[in-house]
Amino acid sequence: MTSSTRKRTIARLLVGTAAVGTFGAPAFAQDSDELASTSTTNQPGIVVTGTRITNPNLEQSSPIQVIGQDEIDYRQATNAEELIGELPGIAPGINNSVNNGSAGAATLDLRGLGTQRNLVLLDGSRLVASTIGNATDLNIIPVALVERVEIITGGASSVYGADAVSGVANFVLRRDFEGVEAAATFGLTERGDGERIRMDLTVGASFDDGRGNAVLSLGYQEVDPVLQSNRLVSQNATFGGQAFGSNTTVPTLINAMQLAPDGQSLIPQYNTFNYAPFNYFQTPLERYNMFAMASYEITPGIEVYTRGMFTRAQVDVAAAPSGLFTQGFQLPLNNPFINETIRQQICAIPTIAIDPATCTAAGQATGPNDPNFLAPTVVLDRRLVEMGPRLTENTTNQFQLWAGVRGDLSPTISYDVSATYGESRRTSTNFRYGLMSRVQQALFAASPTTCYDPSNGCFPINIFGGGVGTNIDPQAIAFIDQPAGSTVETSLAVVNASLTGTFGETGLFTETPIGFAVGVEYRDYVAGQVADVPSSTQGEVMGSGAPSPSFTGGYDVIEAFAEIIVPIVEDVPGFYSLQAEGGIRISDYSNTGTSVTWKAGGSWEPFEGFRFRGIYQVSVRSPNIGELFLPTTIGLTNLTVDPCAGTNPVGNATLTAICIAQGAPAASIGFIPQPSAAQINTSFGGNPDLDVEEAESITLGLVATPPQVPGLVVSIDYFDITVTEAVSSPTVPDILTPCFGPNSDGNGSDPSLCTSFVRNPFNGSLNGGAETPGILLPLSNLGRFETSGVDLRVNYTLPVSFGSINWDFNGTWWDSFVIQSTPTSGALECVGLFSSACDPIKPEWQFNLRTTVAIDDLVDISLLWRWIDGVEYQFRGAGQGFLPESEAFDEANYFDLTVRSNVSENFDVTLTVENLLDRDPPKTSSFIGSTAYNNGETYPSTYDALGRRYTVTGRLRF
Fold this sequence. Notes:
CATH topology of the domain at 3-228 and 282-320 and 392-429 and 487-623 and 692-730 and 779-957: Maltoporin, Chain A
Largest sheet: 22 strands, antiparallel, barrel
CATH architecture of the domain at 3-228 and 282-320 and 392-429 and 487-623 and 692-730 and 779-957: Beta Barrel
């Protein structure tokens, strides 16, 4: 059965059962506990996120956001990122809306402080990272077994160690599963594309009179791509609102040739290439996953347990055809595709300056050994449309194993000793990019069909004449189009031993005893990258941005930790409950030495149902392997206008001197081209001398569950997180403005920063290959981040005659988000703004409101309203050439409607219509913001770019 046939069959089955489930005869009700939202109350023996203390009568001071089983059902997510990525207070990470900038992983970004500053847990245990930046791929989470997700923000390093600066997301799995559960999901956009299927089978059983339990879960997911050519907002790339190229079936060239100093090509000048239609709005995914776990009580008080998981996932990304993007090539003047007119124009370029007679003689040379042979370096800018769109396949194979023993030392003290080991291997293979060395070899042509060096089947390349897309021979394309790739390998080993419990059965002055947890933990991290020769060579793989150098690195850490929650007073007037909380973790890293993290807080409930809480935490993060050991490479960053380009430096001695000092040839002044596609080269890499960064966080809040209003829960929490000595690199404006001045005239406030620019030695631009480092952006511990705001959660369930109505409001007001890359950089406020420095978007206000009507435990009708405040471009109105409508987005409203019905006691069906009103995403310019998040003339990680879509899930249990 083919993929499309399989999906059509699943769709027919699900639509048919949905009709029966929604409009059929009355069915048996589900257990009411299954329809109820998951409570955040501790359960005996269950570790709640944010503390290792398991006493159910103790309340921790950190706020926890819980996504329960109902919300998981309503969302019908393909992967774990879709369960949490749209929550207020969580900035978009890398997900399936990110095309150019994705390495095939889905990541989490709590509070917008970066994926490297939060931690993803599975049942309280660390997962092996999938990137050299220590980010966990959310694709590996077994969604079918997830009972709830608990999110704590504001720091949790004292509980979980480094990487928890901004918090953790803990995916809690169902325990002691018994029976069989089979589920299938099918989704489709209203435009008929972006098909999604997900199938899961879970089998579990208890044995030996309940002393043991074993569970096996198998899953398969497939997501089809959505091309930007299939949505109006993204069919044409624009600069400032003006289209780059027409939406025709025949691709065009980008700045066909850049040979003459005045920017005029030597052949007909075609419209700038419209690259947008080739990119994905939804990246394709195929994933297989397997998860198994088992436990067995050997004797009372001694239980052994184990679990294992394996995931294989492939995520593809696509881009417009590759090309010769302002790279310098040696061009023989006797190339068979050059006529005398073109030859003399090449020789007349000021940076080449070959006299006419010598130029003519070079054109008549018989080969490289001829004394008249000349091959000057020429900057070429030509889109290789004949190769077709670029494609990168990212294939991840990940496994992790756990084993442990747990039990009770006494009626009040429990122990847990465990170990885990995991590996991730992600292979990225580039197709149809082309190799620069082979282009160079093909330019040295003895005739239209013969290369001077015929090795590897060389065939000459004609980049000069002919019709668009037809002038390069397929044999030349086959020669330069060679796959190239790299593999990122990571591993994690953890050994943990802990004790948790209470000091006796009562406290010093209370009935509730003092709770504690102590333990030790050892972790070992290893990560590296292995690349083939083309991928590891700077500039060799054309159109790839940065190379993938081979390297490896690692470090280990041993830690000791302790927590305590002390009930001080309870059940007296004015003090229904008063508790204090503290925790400390001492870490000894092999690379950064010893550091200490700690927390102190408490809660006060003056009378039943109203509890004030607060906590102060100091978190310390050690730099990850990528930040420490990644070799320096040349990649790309965004820049629209280069102060040295065009005629801007002409007549300005100060500016001219700066441009020349940065490596521009004197003859290029007045003719330096603007950044190609608004992107320039940048040099970046790791720094083995990095030290730890420190974060301070404060959370103050109120939780109200008034007995007078049963079913009402209100929580409001203020958060403030400051990261100092942060691992960061300067932004382009941090260097550009102090060097060139606010008017780009060379009168900057810090001329010393001008040495951070290294220009193309052939044409003075900031574009090129290995010869052009561009802007130097080194990592240091000089950064500072600060964010603050308020979270509000209101949940109310109203019993009615036919069932119940529930309202669940979850909102965040972002007061401030400040970035300061270096002490001399300006502090950048990013709330409500978007740009390459402020992405991803952090709106000032954002909320989700879900309203659910449950009818006699038979049918749920649920409407989710997602509201995003308006935002604007950071440099709005600064005269950068963008249309006003490109520089601001209005507030956005999205509505998702879900119906869940119990067809029978063992079978239920869920139908969802997302983006019910089919709201279009806001449109902006392609060159506002970062490439990863500004994808297709909009921000698809924040705003729905796919339009109305339908999803149906059928689930059978027995």
